[in-house]
Predict the 3D structure of the following.
Amino acid sequence: MNDEARFIRENVMAHNKWFEECIPMIASENLMSPLAKEMLISDFADRYAEGLPGKRYYQGNIYVDKVELKALELAKDLFKADWADVRPISGTVANMAVLFAFAQPGDTITTCALAQGAHISTQKFGAFGQRSVNSVQYPWNLEDMNLDVDGTIKLLKEVKPKVAQFGLSVFLFPPPLKELEDTFNEIGCLVWEDCAHVLGLIAGGQFHDPLREGVNIISSSTHKTFPGPNHGMLLGANLTDDQQKALEKAVFPGVTSSHHLHAMAALAITLAEMKVYAKDYAAQAVKNSQALGQALYELGVPVLCPDLGFTKSHAIAVDVAQFGGGKDIAQKLEDANIICNKNMLPWDESAVRPSGLRLGSQEMTRLGMKESEMKEVASFIARVCKGEDPAKVKEDVKAFKKDFVSVKYCFNENEPAYGYRKLVE
Ligand code: DSN
C-alpha cells in the first residue's frame, strides 16, 4: 500500500468511527443491513449485464439473472405492483427514465416547487429542465404543508399535462391523490410519484398506498426510508405493455448501461428483509418522528404543523430562524455529532441560508431507538439551538450513541452497523 492508498483508507475508517459516535438524522439516508452490505463486495461488483434477465448482451450472467428475477418478484410482491424494474442506478436516474419514456422536449409536466420540498430533479435547473420539459408547479397550503386541492384541480384542468408528477423531499403528509383521481381520469394523464423518501414506509403499510390511489408509476431511490443500497427502482400499476416497454427501453439503453449488479443484489436482499420487517420498522419510524416533533416543540423549538401531529412520515420540518437559521444550526449540530441538513421552508427564498432544518427518524429507528430516545435526542438539539457549547453536547451524544451501534429490523441484527463483513459461506 502506498501513502495515497493509506490516506484514503484512513479517512474512510475515520468516517466510520465518527458515524459510530454520531446521531444520524439526514432524512434521505439509512443503514443497510449486514447481509445487504455483504453483496457490495461480491464479484457482482466487477461484472456487466445489459438488457433484461435472459436477454443479456454479455455472457456470464447466469447467477445475475437469477438474482435479478428474484428482486423483481420480491419488489412486485412487496409493493403489490404489476411491473417493476430494478436497474435504475439511483432515484434521479429512475426519474430520467420516466422522462425519457413519457416526456418529449417541450412537453409540460405538473410538479411541486422546490420551497414546498420538491426534489431538485423536477426543477428547471434539474433533470426536468435539462430534458427541456416545462414544469408547472401546484399551488400549496402552508397550514397543512400539502397541495391546495381546489387549486391543483384547476391547474390540472388548465394545463392538461400528459404526466402529473408528485413526491417530495420534505414529505410530511401524503399527497391528496384520492381527491384528484376524477381529474386525472378526466384529462387522461399518467400519474407519477417519486416515492424515494417514503418507500420504506409504503413497504410497511404506512403513509399511503400510491398504486391503489391512482398512481401508475413510482420512481424511487432505495436507500432512504427503504434501507437498501444506493440504487433506484421503478414500479408500475395499470400500465399498458407499450408503456412498460417504453420504460424498460428508457432504463436501458436510455439512462443506464450496466446497472451496478452488486447494488441490485443488495436491493434484492433488502426486499427480502423488508418482507419480514417492514411493518414494525415503518410503524416505529413514524412514531419516532412524531415523538421527536412533540419533544422539540415542548422544549420551545418550533416544529411545523403542531396541530396535525407534525408529520405522518419519518421527517419533520423545524424552524430555527430565531436561533440563527438552518445553515448555522446545522453546522453547530454537526459540531455536536448530530448530523442533519439545513432546509428551505415554504416561505424561504434562499436555499443557501434557509430558516429550517429537516430531521429524519428512519436511521435512528434502524439503530433500535424508540420514543424515549427521541426525547433525549430532542434535548440535545434544543441545548445546541439555545446556545450551549456544541463540544459539551457532543460528549453526551457520544455516550448516548454507545448503545446504538447495530442495525435492527433485519437478519443478523446484532452485527456491527459500521463497516463491512466478509463474504464467506
Ligand atoms: N438529496 C436527497 C435528499 O436529501 O432528499 C434526495 O436525492
Residues 28, 91, 119, 169 surround D-serine (CB under 6 Å).
